Amino acid sequence: MSEALANVVAVVDRLxxxxxxxxxxxxxxxxxxxxLLEEAYETVEAIETNDLTHLREELGDLLLQVVLHxxxxxxxxxxxxxxxxxxxxDLAAKMxxxxxxxxxxxxxxxxxxxxxxxxxxxxxxxxxWEALKAQEKQRESAVDGVPLNQPALSLAAxxxxxxxxxxxxxxxxxxxxxxxxxxxxxxEQAVAAGVDPEAALRERARNYRQTVRKxxxxxxxxx
Length: 223
Prior knowledge:
Blueprint: H1 3-16, H2 22-26, H3 33-48, H4 52-73, H5 84-97, H6 100-103, H7 122-137, H8 152-165, H9 179-192, H10 197-222
Helix pairs in contact: 1-4, 3-4, 8-9
């Protein structure tokens, strides 16, 4: 672990220890969920607005959430405990397993991951990643493991994408007068066009926000 990361771990340990911060000591995995989501959304905003200074800060806030949850896990019951080192080691091992074309035999062989010129394609790698993940987690369905509490647009897009990757032609009867059916149809169109509907709607919402501000400014000037 680098000195900088070790410092973060030490700071969080001090905050959670006796004599530390009452707020930090009162937190649990459950109470921190809303902050994890907030920090994730703020990180997305920094990326989408190309604000690298803001991104640097938000990545730090995300890292804090990871370290906090790992610190809480160190206080769990015997047999359920894990540390930030366990999290990091598990992650490294998983990334090695999920990249056999880099770390395994496929790194040198023209196996199923390779295209005609011997280089693995993004499509092959995506399919391999999903297959390895399904095997590791012993999933029975293409849509197993999709978190249902994510925003509705991204949830629909993920389900459609998973079904398509599995080669499933799923036809669902829709009601033309149903707003939900109309939205889902738009999500299917977006996925087919390679567009992230969640990101597309956020961009449109940002533009709308700017339009509202201009209208407010014009109304103020008129008064």
